[in-house]
Every structure is written in structure tokens, then in C-alpha cells.
Description:
- The protein has helices at 2-26, 120-131, 146-158; strands at residues 40-43, 45-61, 65-68, 73-77, 84-85, 90-94, 97-103, 172-175, 179-184, 191-192, 197-202, 206-213, 225-229, 235-250, 256-266, 278-296, 301-302, 308-312, 320-330, 333-337, 346-349.
- The chain has 352 residues and is mainly beta.
- It comes from Nonomuraea corallina.
Amino acid sequence: MRRGTLIAAVMAVTLAGGAAAAVALTGRQETPVTTAAPAATAEVVRGDLVDSVALKGTVRFAGDRRILVGRAGTITWVPGPGTVIKPGGVLFRVDRRPAVLMRGGLPMYRTLRQGVSDGPDVTQLERGLRSLGYGDGVTVDRHYSWETARAVRDWQRAYGLERTGTVDAAQVVFLPGTVRVGEARVAVGDPVAPGRQVLAVSGVRQVVHLDLDAGRQDLAREGTGVSVELPDGKTVKGEVVSVGPVVRAEGSGGTERSTVDVRIRLKGRKKAIGQDRTPVTVTLRDRRREDVLSVPVEALLALPDGGFGVEVAEPGETARTLSVRTGAYGDGRVEVSAPGLRAGVKVTVPAP
Length: 352
């Protein structure tokens, strides 16, 4: 009886299992079967690895300058922010009379009239007149001649100025080239006196400013190549053009932070990138490791006892975890070393 009862019980369990299997395969109460996807692998690669660091920077227009008024009167016109003014253009108007931009590196520090000589300011005025089409017959030299005065009168007539043949700071503002208006410091109707600031302008060329910790200034020597990620996600090349002196400032919690102002020129950019002070990400190269083994960063495993390891997954072998020593990071890879680790070995890369 006991043997018969045991056999019957086993058969009952077997039949029940078969019925459950039938339900699982054909019935409405199907149970989904989950199959683990095979883990992806990557090879250990031998080669050079560049360690890099990404920092936040801002794009700014280079060459900030203040534009001062040269005569007393009332402001009757100023340009709006973002206006680009080329040589020959009007910067502002006082009592409806224009202050005209001319190309030159020396400010207008005296009144120029016939007979004045021995001055580079005369030279740049004559060059400016010729570039605007008013210098026929004028010899570009350091002497304000009768021909120069005639050209000035023609220029004054074209701009609605009194035809005096003399030029002063009320009529001309010398700047190195085209400017972009950042801000008007006066409004139409404001009374002004000589020497008051009217505009804040800059050049039209953009540079990236980076406040770099002084302890890492070896990353940004003049001529160093960098990459800059723009707000639209595009990446362009850049070059460090200047590194300022160390500046000490008080940080959060009363701690002192020492930084250097790094300026980076963007290569191949002719159009402006957004507005002034647009945020960007700058990637600087830290160090270069030559002829080292590396794996994708995702292949690193945190070990229970500390440190890192990789899971070696060679074909036909049981996967095993190998403790590794890490080194430089760069381009999504990490330098690794361990006894027996060689190029070509496959390691597991967990799915994201």
C-alpha cells in the first residue's frame, strides 16, 4: 500500500506539472519567460591616452572700450545694444551732430588743423579720410596740409558738420576697427559734458574666458589647443591666446580661491555665438600617456574591498573578475594594468 500510494502521488505531481506546462504554453494565463541578454564585451586596447578635464567658460566679445563724448550738449541719438558700427559709421549724436568712427590706434588728444605736423594722429586722420573716399590729392604723412584741410571740409559737408577744415574729439573717435555696442550709458535727452561716457563697446571678435584654478594653470599655456562645446552641442577647436596673472578672491565660506584668466580664440568662427557671456564647456588636455592598456570606463567594476576590477570574458572560459590598477582617463577610456592583462583580451561592458 505504501509503495502504491507513493507511485500514485508521484504520478499526480507529474500530471499536475504537465497540466501547468500545457496552460503555460496554450492557455490564456501565459507566464512570460525572461531570457537574460548576453553581456556586451570590449577589447583591451594598447595605445596612447590623453587625459582631459572639462571646465565651464563664457564666450565674450574681446576688446572692451569706453566711448567718451567730446562736446557739451544734449544726446539726440544713440545706437542700441548689439549694433555693429564700422569705420565711417556714426557712434552717437550730440545736438544732432555726429561723432564718427575712424580707424586708428591713437585717441584724438588735440585739435587738428592746417599747419599741424609731426604727429601720428595726423597720419591716421589722413589715412581714415582716404579710406572713406575723401582723400584725393592728400599725401598720407605727418603733415596737415592744405589738401588735408580741403578733404576734411568735403568730409564735414557729407556728415552735416560745419565746414571748418579742422577736426577735434567732438567729431571723430579713433578706434582700431569695427565695434559692437554693448550698452548705451546715456539716453536721448540727457545733457552731457566733455569726458562723460556715452557707450560701452567691444570688438566683434569673440573669445572664451575661463577662470582656471591657479594650481592647474599648466593646463593652459599660450598656444595650447583645446576643444569648445557650444550651446548648440557642436564642438569647435580653440587655442589659448593669453593667460593672465594670478588673482586671489574670497570664495564661499570665507575660503580664498586663486585663479588665472585664460582667453581662448575660437578657430574657424566668423559668425557670433549667441549673446555676450554665452556659457560653453572647454576641454583641456591634462597629460598624455603613451603605449598603455585601456578599456571603456563603463567596464570598470567597484570591488568590495576597494579599488577597481574588470570582468574578463574570454571565449570558452568562465568569466572571472581581475583586479586592476587605474591611471589616466580620456575620451571615455581609462588606463588599466594588471598581471597577465594584455591587448586583445575581452572584458564585459554592462548594458546601460
